[in-house]
Design brief:
By secondary structure, this protein is of the alpha/beta class. The chain has helices at 7-10, 19-22, 61-74, 90-103, 114-125, 140-148, 161-178, 199-204, 231-235, 263-272, 274-277, 284-299, 301-320, 341-353, 384-403, 405-408, and strands spanning 31-32, 38-41, 44-48, 107-111, 131-135, 152-156, 182-187, 212-216, 243-247, 257-261, 333-338, 357-358, 360-362, 371-376. It has 2 domains: 7-54 and 301-408, Aspartate Aminotransferase, domain 1 (Alpha-Beta Complex); 61-299, Type I PLP-dependent aspartate aminotransferase-like (Major domain) (Aspartate Aminotransferase, domain 2, 3-Layer(aba) Sandwich), CATH 3.40.640.
């Protein structure tokens, strides 16, 4: 027998193995100052494109005022205890009613966190005899929820309806034999690639197969649809989505999440979601802050219009210069480049140190070797001047990448915070 912790001295994991070269710069960087298009990174002012503050609500004066007043009035402790036991308030219920009405569902259940919430929804809904069918590019919270499932699951190729139809046929045979049901799970907006889930086509398959439909719309809530209610609204299939999940961590610039649907299933989740039954209720300042954010999201469509003005300008400008943005049709803007880890390291170092632009970068082992993704998140708080500067800077770094400048340089050495 060996010490269960001994293995961590030898292996820190696929990403953790690079911590001594990356910590505090490429991984766990510290962006400081108020949340805004320009923030400080290691003492330098950076144009920041890596925050999901889509509508610019993080430092909206009404939001800041509501947060401060709620914290002064309630402190950060109230209510104490889980909602089922002693943590229920009229404000929690009000927020649930408002969220349900906004997304066009009879009821909603407020959740403490998005990631934890999605995992727990799947765990609560699916029994051993039920079958899950999910998109291959689903977020980690969906994958972890699926892993908790003690029954069978089938994965379909990303947004491929023929693949989904094939897996639904297999799931139908199995669920019928076992006396279970089928849950199909996908995302409204895929946070890495930026493309929308084909909710309309999936919903149409309900005419052919019997299943329930769960959508994680973390990135679509507040950004997509005529009123910002999400991708289901965009496609006109809100009534076909059985469970709609949204988070406050993106457009609402806060903490928390919710799930909306018919009253019977929402009540079941209220009494059976372990992550909520055994967790303290969201503190009142977060609840009142969410009420204000939702009010602004609904009452100020110009925020979403400004977001989309910046999105269109950025994406059109990048495409005009020949950049590959993949299949995005949402604000999420991935820029696909070719190069190895050393080239990616030097490119991002150059972008931050010399062009004063802070973007997130994705390389192997998250994506295949030889590929680089620079992920840009436009917000309503950015300006067209920010967009133009970024376009000019990206043209310059691509020239360096393609001319071999980054390949010739030694790997950029940074001072790690360890």
């Amino acid at each position: 027998m060996t010490d269960i912790f001994a293995k961590f001295q030898r292996n820190q994991g696929d990403i953790g193995q690079y911590m001594k070269l990356a910590h505090g710069y490429f991984a766990f960087p510290k962006l400081e100052g108020e949340i805004a298009p320009y923030m400080n990174f290691r003492g330098k002012r950076m144009l920041t494109w890596s925050l999901n503050n889509y509508l610019g609500l993080a430092n909206h004066p009404e939001v800041r005022k509501a947060d401060a007043e709620a914290a002064a009035r309630w402190g950060l402790a109230y209510p104490m205890g889980a909602r089922m036991m002693s943590g229920q308030t009229v404000k929690h219920e009000e927020l649930e009613r408002n969220l349900a009405a906004f997304v066009g569902k009879p009821d909603a259940f407020l959740l403490n966190y998005g990631y934890q919430g999605m995992v727990s929804i799947i765990d609560a809904v699916c029994g051993r005899n039920d079958v899950i069918v999910y998109d291959a590019e689903s977020h980690a919270c969906i994958l972890d929820g699926v892993r908790l499932h003690m029954g069978k699951r089938f994965v379909f190729q990303h947004n491929n309806m023929e693949s989904l139809r094939k897996q639904l046929a297999r799931a139908t045979t199995l669920a019928t034999r076992q006396g279970g049901g089928i849950l199909v799970i996908t995302e409204g907006v895929f946070g890495m690639s930026g493309d929308m889930g084909r909710l309309d086509d999936i919903a149409a398959l309900k005419e052919e197969f019997s299943f329930r439909f769960l959508v994680d719309d973390a990135h679509g809530f507040g950004t997509m649809g005529a009123t910002g209610a999400g991708v289901a609204e965009h496609f006109g299939v809100s009534d076909k989505v059985d469970l709609m999940f949204g988070t406050f961590a993106k457009s609402m610039a806060g903490i928390g999440a919710f799930v909306a649907g018919e009253t019977d299933i929402i009540n079941y989740l209220r009494y059976n979601m372990r992550s909520q039954t055994f967790a303290k209720a969201l503190p009142m300042p977060m609840v009142e802050g969410a009420l204000k954010r939702l009010e602004l999201l609904q009452g100020h469509p110009e925020l979403r219009e400004k977001l989309w003005t910046n999105v269109r300008a950025l994406q059109a400008g990048l495409k005009a210069e020949g950049f590959d943005l993949g299949r995005t049709n949402t604000p999420v803007t991935p820029v696909y480049l070719k190069g190895g880890p050393s080239e990616a390291t030097n490119l991002i170092f150059d972008l931050r140190e010399n062009y004063k632009i802070f973007c997130s970068v994705v390389i192997y082992p998250v994506i295949p070797k030889g590929e680089i993704i620079i992920r840009i998140i436009p917000t309503a708080a950015h300006s067209l001047k920010d967009v133009q500067y970024t376009l000019d800077s990206f043209k310059a770094i691509r020239h360096k990448l393609e001319s071999g400048t980054y390949a010739k340089e030694g790997i950029a050495k940074v001072q790690v915070d360890m």
